[in-house]
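Methods — Computational structure assignment.
A single polypeptide chain was analysed. Its primary sequence is given first, followed by the predicted tertiary structure written as structure tokens.
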Amino acid sequence: MDKYRAIPENYMTVGELAKKMGVTVRTLHYYDKAGLLPPSSESKSGYRLYSDKDMVALNQILAMKHLGFSLDDIKNHFVTLETPDDVADALTEQATAIREKMKQLAESLETIEMLKAEVLQMQSVDFRKYAAIIENLQMKNVHYWAIKHFDDELFDHLRQYDKESAAKIVKTLNCLNIEGTRLHKKGILPESDKGQLFAKSYWELLITFVKGDMNLISKLAKIHNSFDEKFNDKPASTFIYGALDIYLTKLNTDPFGLYVQNKTEKM
């Protein structure tokens, strides 16, 4: 009883706070030691004392910890609670952090589901390809699915690129696909000057990716020719294939074999 008589009004012991918030006393001691949530006061008997403000702050910590933030992250996002503006700022900061974490979790979930679909379509367990697919999903490469069909030569070539170089190629590829869609919707003809300029850019990207190796170009073409359902549903596909067909004919080269021809016949 002497212990409780020594506790000032509007304060609670570490045990009381722990019970109210559903955490252990050990956890609160740890937050105190880490400098994250020191007690607001101390009783004459040396007991740690916490206020309602500390309970609100603890709610901040627990919410962010639940979302996967480290203690260092929480410290960086933590706001002192002295005025109504401080509290509002803390809640705004916490809401922003939660939205960002939700976005990250949603993206992670999407990546997991897409990888799962690819794994089930593969005929063997290949963690190297799993990792490459994840990397390309994170880079928003719309052709990520083709990686599971890469043979050793194609895959070894892919792994030559560091993350920065790969991201640059993927960004250019995605921009070209967007541009192809735009030109297609505007009714630009593949044989037009704009269509051929587009084909030139697309071809140069392919040549850059394979570093001039026509054998790799042919392998990529065969993959898309055999497993192109994910590419053919894009509005730009007809325009891109048509423009490339005309451009390569003018160059008097056909590294695709019957690939472009077959595609043109489908239009």
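Note: Confidence is low (pLDDT under 50) at residues 1-5, 258-267.
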